[in-house]
Amino acid sequence: MHVCLKKADKPCIVAFDEFQQISKYPEKNIEALLRSHIQHLSNVHFIFSGSGCHLVTEMFLSSARPFYNSTSILELYPIVAEEYIPFVCHWFDVYERAIREEDVLVIYRLFEGNTYYMQKTFHEAFINIPIGSSCTLDILRQTVDGVLEEAGDGYRQLLSRIPERQKELLYAIASAGKAEKIMSAGFIRKYSLVSSSAVQAAARKLMELDLLTEEDNIYFIPDILFRMYLQWLKNTNIIFIPS
Predict the structure, then answer these.
(1) DSSP per residue over 152-205, as a string?
(2) Alpha-carbon span 162 to 230, nearest angstrom
């Protein structure tokens, strides 16, 4: 690939998705090796993207890392509701189906603007209603339940490989939604955790696995559907979309 890019007769763009994963490769100094090749490709533009915000940020902003100050950083925010809601309503209408803006907003808020889970929900709902019908809130509720159930097998297998103390912390943070001061006596007591040192160790490991994220001292589970699944495991009567 390096040879092909070097010989390219026109500008090229190479995109790396989930770029933070290279830090987990067994090879030593993979970042330095990649940087040594990239820096000589003057006709190639690179895009490095990743969902592990703190890991990607460290790769490019830490002076000890090979990619330090080698890029311009752009944070991608969720599509704003004011643009996404008309988009969904328009395409339902184009194919002779209807959906209310306020119901689209319910899903938008539920998934916090996550385009993958919103798109999956609306797609599943769309294909299950006939032409001339309306996609109601009840249909969306059933669809979300189906999406959650579909993901359940994978999440169960994932949880089976996680040590108990890490699972306990995941349940606690999922219940809180977003949690501050997770090593405080109050948080530990509220969620019946073992100790601050145990929480600290569990949090560190979960962040290494990208199952937990910390931003501005706030901890949360980045996979929103996984968070919902954990909430459901602790309370099977939970209602994600109220009537």
Answers:
(1) HHHHHHHHHTS-HHHHHHHHHHHHHSSEE-TTSHHHHHHTT---HHHHHHHHHH
(2) 13
Q: Report helix angle 101-110 to 115-127, nearest 10.
A: 130
Calpha distance 68→32 (Å, rounded): 11
CATH class of 162-234: mainly alpha
DSSP 8-state assignment for residue 234 = H
SS3 220: strand
Structure tokens at 171: 């349940």
The answer to whether residues 140 and 106 touch, using CB atoms and an 8 Å cutoff, is yes
pLDDT tens for 87-96 read 999 999 999 9
Residues 144-174 pLDDT 10s? 999 999 999 999 999 999 999 999 999 999 9
Phi and psi at residue 71, to the nearest 5°: -140, 170
Q: Where are the domains of the chain?
A: 2-61, 81-155, 162-234
Q: Tell whether the torsion through CA atoms of 23, 28, 31 and 34 is positive or negative.
A: negative
